[in-house]
Amino acid sequence: MTLLIARNIKKRFGGLQALTTLDVTVEPKSIHSVIGPNGAGKTTFFNCLTGFYKPEEGEILFEGRAIQGMPPDRVASRGISRTYQNIRLFSNVTVLENVLVGMHRHLHTGWFGAVIRPPTVRREEVAANDEAMRILKFVDLDKKADFVAKNLPYGEQRRLEIARALASKPTLILLDEPTAGMNPKETEDTTDLIRRLRDDLGITVLLIEHDMKVVMNISDLITVLDFGKKIAEGDSLAIRSDTHVIEAYLGRGAATGDSYGAKTPAKTEA
Amino acid sequence: MLARLRREFDIADLVLYLIGLGLLIAIVYGSIVTLSSGKYTTAQWLNFIIFGLAQGGIYALIALGYTMVYGILGMINFAHGEFFMMGSFGAFFTTAALAEMGFLERNPILSILLMMVVAMTVSAAVAVLSERIAYRPLRRAPRLVPLITAIGVSYFLQYTARGLFGSSVKAFPNIPALSGAVQLGPIAIQRSQIAVFVVVALMLLSLYFIVQRTKVGRAIRSVAEDKDAAALMGVDVDRTIALTFLIGGIMAGAAGVMYGIVFRQASFWMGFVPGLKAFTAAVLGGIGNIAGAVLGGISLGVVESIGPSLFLDGLGIAAPHQLKDAIAFTVLVLILIFRPTGLLGERLSKRA
Amino acid sequence: MKSDRPFTLVDAAKLGLYGGISAILISLVGMTAAFAKTAIIADLLTMAQVLIYGLAFMVGFVVVGRAARGSRGLALPAGALASAVTMLSLSLLALLIGAVNLRTIFTNATAELANLILPGETSGLAGALLLTGAGAAVGLVAWLLTFVPTRIRNGLFGGIAAVVLFGLMQDVLVPILPKSVDDFLFESKGLTWVGAVVVFVLFFILSYLYAMRSQVRISRLDKLPPQQRQIARFAFTLVALIILTLLPRILGPFLSEVANQVGFYIIMALGLNVVVGFAGMLDLGYVAFYAIGAYTMAVLTTPELPIMREILPQLTFWEALPFAVGAALLAGILLGIPVLKTRGDYLAIITLGFGEIIRLLVLSDALKPFLGGAQGITGVGRPKIDDFTATNPQQFYYLILVAIVVAWFITSRLKSSRLGRSWMAIREDEDVAAAMSINLVGYKLLAFATGATLAGLSGALFASKLGSMVPASFNVLVSINVLAVLIVGGMGSLPGAVVGAIVLIGLPELLREFNEFRWWVYGAVLVFMMLNKPEGLWPEATRVRELHEAEAEHTHVDDDASPTAPATA
Lengths: 270, 352, 569
What we know:
- The complex is a heterotrimer of chains A (270), B (352) and C (569).
- Chain B has 352 residues and is mostly helical.
- Chain B has 15 helices and 4 strands.
- In chain B, strand 2 (181-184) and strand 3 form a beta hairpin.
- Chain C is globular.
- Residues 544-569 of chain C have low confidence and may be disordered.
- The interface between B and C is large, with 60 and 58 residues.
């Protein structure tokens, strides 16, 4: 069964049609990349999926149930979690606390439980701590659990954001440019990590990425957006030779070549 | 349809709409009762409206300062009511001195102009100084920080005025040229109210001219749109923001004079309630929107002027005029809940 | 910043001028004249002099520090110049007062003020010159102090602060100290010469030792194994509780009264801390819940208000208390639902609006038969156990203490729980919090209602302790007061709320002369704190740790990979 079906999504901002009739289908336990030039509507699409924007038209089915127009917290509690293009950690608290917040969905302590703190609550907290440490170990941040998030180096902040998203045990995780601004070594590690999300944890990954090397390497399926529309879809081989795609990128002055040259066309344009 | 309702349903929204509906029914019912009882004559209603318009004009002048600062900094300048208060004190001391010299009786027009100049200078100076000392260092601070600072500035200014000028209420001397009323058909318009209409209209026209037609206005609009882009285009952002405070201060000073002419008093606490109401007016019209501030100010003035007689009286509430301020604040609360973008505003949606 | 530019004498003069403007403002607002009546050391030093010379000294000290960063040679002239300019500005005010009648505008610009400003019996130009010279001398002292080792300098400051505090609190200290000590330390007004020296030396030694030890002690406590650390903490709590239990006996009735006043604010501050400090919502209408708690208590227990008595039976304090707290909770939820849909700044204004509406309703004649109108309500019930009724402040103290302990317990537990984490998330980034499946309105409502409940508790106790109440006690200043307490103490910090309340509520009650200026000073303090120390005097423990770690781990952070601050839009 398909995990996510987005049908005929439309979203406009004032005079700008950000998404026009977008259709995307995501298969379970796959890595599905969404690429496209800057302003193609990729992040807008993510925001529609997670409930931050209400699409004017269209339908989003997650595990067979409609979620369009649902408030973000209810979408999240269905099992969709995400990271952000510009890192948005809770920067003034520790790494561990960041992950613990991510686990919100699976904890149950209420007001009275928090104040009285009966054994069940204590056990829940201990278990949550252990689980959080396991997740941190998975992204190799367990040794920095007590660090304040904003003091981590850039690459680790990105990984922490992924860890926080993992903490809610999502079925689908949306990663918005997880390798942006990373050096080649960090990019490689992150690519590995994304692959492990699918292979080890069985999580479906929907990925926005500008680094074509990463995209071509790990994607099971690639959707290409331009001007809020899908212009191509297929595996890396098909996309590489698709004339529409080459046009969309070449028309914007990106370099040619196997990986479309520049790591982030966005940066070179700006 | 039902599925969609279930998906997007929110208990808080339901409660809100029930509250809104209840208030609406109460207002309509109260108004019908009052109007059908014929307790007030048409002339009385017209007088309420004219008083409301004059009051609303003063709110509008203060509201401009709120709205312009919000438009450019995205910050509620809590202390703006105090700029108004300082201006009013400036006007008071000027008239008091002029009255003592006998100048006030001989040259009423010149005296009022002098009052305006002094009040505007005082308000503008306080506004620019506050910006320079308290707000400018906080340009990039988290949102709550400037707001709390503004609260601090507000209290500091209030109690500075108390310390400097004493805690008593100062009574403005009588300006003979502005006392009495002009009979206009069935209604009598106070001369002081006519003065308010004239001054408010002139101030608004000149503001419109400045913002729409001059280089300064262009700079203000560009900074309000996008600070970084404006800076790249060679606009001096700090100077433009200071200018915005200056203009807001001038408007508040004018409002201080008008308030002094209509209510003939000044006190250190006089800035708080008009300030809050002017903020209400700014939000009512759509904060960040200059025309909206005017519309909001005038509507608020009229609503709070006719409201107590119109619907509170009809509901059988004793001494309804005591609740005049409560009506204004209820408008504030309702507008923030149901239509935070205000009557004309779209600017906010971008920022919120 | 401009600090790249070398510091010049012009900068020094400019800072001196700012100091001078402050001094003029302080004088014109009336502080100088009011404080001249308070003697610190009998016939030698008044509080007004401490204020003016202290200001000149601070200006000099700051300037010396800044100038010394550039070149050491500049420090002395710059410091002396700055302090002299401060005093020169002030003496110009005195001269101006002598020449022109400023009183028509500035009520405090009296000839008496001019006399107070100029030193000794001097007047006119000679006095102005003398004062300016004194300024330069103060600048010289500031310069000299930079050569003194930090620890000794802190000792000196500690000693001077103690002398000033002892002098200020004479009226408070005399009744509680033994008679022989009183006679030794104090004259009828101010400390004796000898007393001042003794106090100075004593506190010099104490602060010298404290500065030496405090570092060691903290690190030692941190090194203890967790088990022992817990025992140490428990022992500390126990000792603190014992002291707190004995406090009213030590303090006597007047100080217990002040302690109670502080207590009401501690409870409110702990409550507002949940709303502002934990969840990051600025609630300016907080006083509404205090009022609701107080009015519910009053209405339910008073024998007056015949209309209410027909509807409701008259309750005792203990029966009414749950209703009072419950009413505040209910109001918190009812007001919370509409309020919490709005965001950020608007939330502050809308709560302010609600607070004002409630105050106006209480004051109105429309509700007078139910709530007593502007005259308020008298005959509020007192807490009674068997035949014992708590009436005096010393007895009431215990009730308030229990309430504080409860409030502390609840808020500290909430803070370190799943709820505290969710509030933290909402405070830091609402959007991300929602994406973590946190229901924003629900959790904000929890915070709002918790805060309202504690305010209601405080209000109920307040009404009962006073025995009568008037609506004037519930204006917006109370909300601002509580907010100031939190900001000075440190938002989000529980000890901060206590320290803030003691400093901002307790001290003004003790220093009568200061009380008149408390709002003026609060305003200035809020601005100052936001500009210079937004984390407060006693910041949250995690923030301290955060700063420590930032230093300790500095070497670990790659220089090229500086973490970009996430945009807080």
